[in-house]
Amino acid sequence: MFAVTILGNNSALPAHGRHPTAQVVAIEDQLILLDCGEGTQLQMSKYKIKRSKINHLFISHLHGDHFFGLIGLITSFSLQNRQQDLHIYAPPELEKIIADQLQVSGTKLPYTLQFHALVEEGRILEEEKFTVDCFKVDHRITCFGFLITEKRKPRKLEMEKLAQVNIPTVFYSHLSMGEDYILPDGTRIANESVTTETSPPRKYAYCADTKFYPPIAEKIRGADLIYHEATYLNNLLEKAIERFHSTSVQAAQMALLAQAKKLLVGHFSSKYESLEEFRAEASAVFPNTEIAEEGVTFMV
User: Fold this and answer.
1) Do 180 and 190 contact (CB within 8 A), yes or no?
2) Catalytic site residue from 65, 133, 209, 224
3) Can you give the pTM of this predicted structure?
4) Residue 154 half-sphere exposure, CB side, CA atoms within 13 Å?
5) Is 209 a catalytic residue?
6) Are 114 and 143 in contact (CB under 8 A)?
């Protein structure tokens, strides 16, 4: 299972029944929360998200529509007597903000809150079955995107071919991890001659709030699914540039540059009630485009 559920797809002002940014990524048996705008908890309840499975929470930047729901979620975990650690990855200034909010409210958490400051690009989480990397985007303040990648699955053993060679069964686990086998006489049995590759690892790229910024493409190249903001339609290109945001067309151009398989566009300005034109503009450039509709789950 590797899927993304949209909890909020609007920009700064909640409008037209839409909510500020938040997404839940389900990968294997874990849930990852990407940003936590106002109303995220209500959206979790509405779409039956199991909060107990959230151990890692990523905040892209410190504009309110991306983290104003966080302290409520932290304290709700406390009220539910959460015991397992909660890991938060965010710009360093957020650590003091959280500490101050907990202090003035006299809140003592029954669990350990582990804060990981985002300062540089690179690997920020490595789990048994997936990794998370962060990369810088171009916004008005420091802002990071996130790349979630499955770890490579073991290779499939071809039992008929293995029956024809003298490889001990105790070495099969090494074969599944891609190793060649060396016979006692020095002969090498190539791994690909007795195994086949399973499906390649899938990748989901969350590009947060950003101007059109070509260096992002190198960080997310070949992603199966990318989310890129499209705050404005393309007739407001100048406004998008001025406010460090992107248009629907620019989001599609990024998907092309990154050689992505599928694009989700979101973070829509509250000036738009209908979103269909965003899909039309973006898909004219990158056909496999979807609107990041709230409550919809997209497979990676």
Assistant:
1) yes
2) 65
3) 0.88
4) 10
5) no
6) no
